[in-house]
Write a structure and sequence with these properties.
Elements lengths: L1 H24 L4 H12 L10 H21 L3 H5 L2 H25 L4 H10 L5 H11 L5 H29 L4 H26 L3 H4 L3 H21 L4 H12 L5 H25 L3 H32 L4 H9 L6 H12 L5 H23 L1 H8 L23 E4 L4 H12 L4 E4 L2 H9 L4 E3 L5 H6 L7 E4 L4 H11 L8 E4 L3 H9 L4 E3 L1 H18 L1 H20 L12
Parallel strand pairs: 1-2, 1-4, 2-3, 4-5, 5-6
Helix pairs in contact: 1-2, 2-13, 3-12, 3-13, 5-6, 5-8, 5-14, 6-16, 7-8, 7-17, 8-15, 8-16, 9-12, 11-12, 14-15, 14-17, 16-17, 24-25
């Protein structure tokens, strides 16, 4: 038995690696490869997965680690900075998609419980996949990415609440008294876990954190241990893992714990997705293929349309709405976990899991190309999307006066330019999409425009060609190329200073007409080197420069700025 299990395990890992390499070449998320690995290894093809109990155990551990990791990062304070748009789009899209989907699924012949589960499950979108795609594309600092991260976090919270409450309703079936009793018991157990974490783990945290190995072992034992305790007293294993993560988020080293647990989580979650694929059979596929096509089209088209309506109603431009809409055109890992939960407590049968898994494969595959090539999609679809754009926009509203100086990005590097322009005592405009920066500008009574610098239509409304000077501190090549293009449409052709993070991008920007390209790392070294000769010649110069820099850093710290930190663990 052990040797047979080892053989199965080796085959699964080998298949998973080969399929993952193919997915990598196709620029697809690896989650698709893991499910396909399960299809190949399962009864449909090779049928090598004979040790079901062992692999199901690994799969359950994967879910536990995933929810434990979510709990570690579930800090309510983070949600505040994403603002109203994240809440409206995140919660609004889930509610509307669930309602519309429920009606359609009932009309398609699904039973009420199945329709409810499927409609809610398909309303969620994958935070992990979208963050990876946006990061690979280099769009993390763009407006649509900021909004997407915000509403995906809101959706994650909603999914977590559902995963927490559904088992309670299942265990509390029979009477309201039993439901309240069950809920009360879970609350008491949760409070006990938080109390233990606060009184013991947090208090002795400094001792545990002295050893990376001890900290890793403590976190692993805590996460699995609390999950097991919840299961042993009759509650959900998943609830226990989530509660354990939230309780441990109180410790200062939660980021290090998260980083160290990530490889372990990723390994076991691979087995979870492999088992999802392996549980699909030919009979399931033949019966769900047509519904899967319909549901996939609804996710790929319907969810972005709903989000575009919400974004347009809030006053965002069609390009921002389209780019943000594409980020929801797939289902989440939470969608699959929710359906697995429904199967495990007897609400759903296996065919529903096969259906949603198939929808997951199709939508994750399709949405990848929607997100990665959103600019090309906008060039094609843009003229037809005017119906999603209101006349009164909060993004790039009509300017009340003319400006000859424009600053794109008022944070970090932009702050130094901003202070310089204030000293010039001439009207200038700051363009930014960060709510915190906009709030700072409004407080200091500096003219600003809330907008997406990656939208050529918005840039043209600024009349950049009439400017005396334009500065962009946004280190995005495509955005800076658009700014250069818009600025050179007239005869004036003002000087444009831009930021780049690579020599190749800097040279390309110079070819496009940039007056000067700022490379922060090289510029910082050149600037610092200029002090060396002064320091050798004068001790007074050392003290003066030192005190000036300390005051400068204190000013930045008061504004909430921090120098970018290189993460030790990736």
């Amino acid at each position: 038995m052990p040797s047979e299990l080892l053989t199965e395990f080796g085959i699964i890992l080998g298949l998973a690696t080969v399929v993952a390499l193919i997915m990598r070449l196709l620029h697809q998320p690896l989650i698709i490869g893991h499910i396909i690995t399960g299809l190949i290894a399962g009864p449909i093809l090779l049928d090598v997965l004979q040790s079901q109990d062992i692999f199901n155990l690994f799969s359950q551990i994967g879910i536990a680690f995933l929810l434990f990791s979510v709990g570690l990062n579930l800090n309510p304070l983070v949600l505040r900075k994403y603002g109203k748009v994240a809440l409206i789009t995140g919660a609004g899209q889930v509610v509307i998609t669930s309602f519309v989907g429920f009606v359609i699924y009932i009309l398609m012949g699904f039973e009420m419980v199945e329709a409810l589960y499927i409609s809610v499950a398909l309303s969620f979108s994958s935070t992990i996949i979208i963050l990876k795609l946006i990061s690979d594309k280099g769009d993390l600092e763009k407006l649509y990415a900021k909004i997407a991260i915000g509403f995906l976090l809101i959706q994650d919270v909603i999914a977590v609440v559902l995963l927490f409450t559904i088992p309670l309703f299942s265990m509390g079936q029979g009477s309201p008294q039993k439901l309240f009793s069950t809920f009360g018991e879970v609350v008491l157990l949760t409070l006990a876990v938080f109390a233990f974490s606060k009184l013991i783990i947090v208090r002795f945290h400094s001792y545990f954190s002295r050893s990376h190995e001890l900290l890793f072992l403590l976190a692993t034992a805590w996460g699995i241990g609390i999950a097991v305790i919840f299961r042993e007293v009759g509650f959900s294993f998943e609830i226990g893992a989530l509660v354990a993560g939230i309780a441990l988020s109180l410790v200062p080293s939660r980021h290090e714990i998260y980083a160290r647990l990530t490889p372990l989580r990723d390994f076991f979650i691979v087995i979870f997705f492999v088992m999802l694929g392996a549980q699909m059979t030919l009979s399931d596929l033949s019966s769900v293929i047509f519904p899967a096509i319909i549901l996939s089209v609804m996710v790929l088209v319907g969810k972005p349309l709903i989000l575009m309506v919400l974004m347009g109603a809030m006053g965002y431009r069609r390009k921002t709405s389209l780019e943000t809409g594409f980020t929801v055109a797939q289902i989440s890992e939470f969608s699959l976990i929710l359906i697995v939960l429904g199967v495990s407590i007897g609400h759903l049968d296996q065919s529903v899991l096969s259906l949603v898994t198939l929808v997951g494969l199709a939508t994750i595959f399709g949405s990848t190309y929607l997100v990665l090539f959103s600019d090309k999609w906008y060039k094609f679809l843009g003229p037809y999307l005017k119906i999603f754009e209101r006349k009164r926009l909060i993004e790039g509203t009509q300017l009340e006066k003319e400006y000859n100086i424009f600053l794109f990005g008022g944070n970090r590097i932009g702050l130094d330019f901003l202070e310089t322009f204030v000293k010039w005592q001439r009207p200038f405009l700051v363009i930014d999409h960060d709510p915190e920066v906009i709030g700072m500008l409004a407080k200091e009574k500096i003219d600003y425009s809330f907008g997406n610098a990656g939208d050529i239509d918005f840039l043209d409304t600024l009349k950049l060609s009439n400017a005396e000077i334009i500065v962009s501190t946004i280190p995005d090549l495509e955005i800076n190329l658009l700014i250069l293009e818009s600025s050179q449409k007239g005869e004036n052709k003002p000087p444009v200073m831009v930021v780049a993070h690579s020599i190749s991008n800097a040279l390309r920007l110079y070819e496009a007409g940039a007056a000067y390209v700022i490379l922060p790392h090289f510029l910082g070294g050149e600037y610092a080197a200029s002090f060396a000769q002064k320091f050798v010649q004068s001790a007074e110069e050392v003290q003066s420069t030192r005190m000036h820099h300390i005051e400068y850093l204190k000013n930045r710290a008061q504004r909430g700025h921090e120098h970018p930190i290189l993460e030790k663990y990736r």
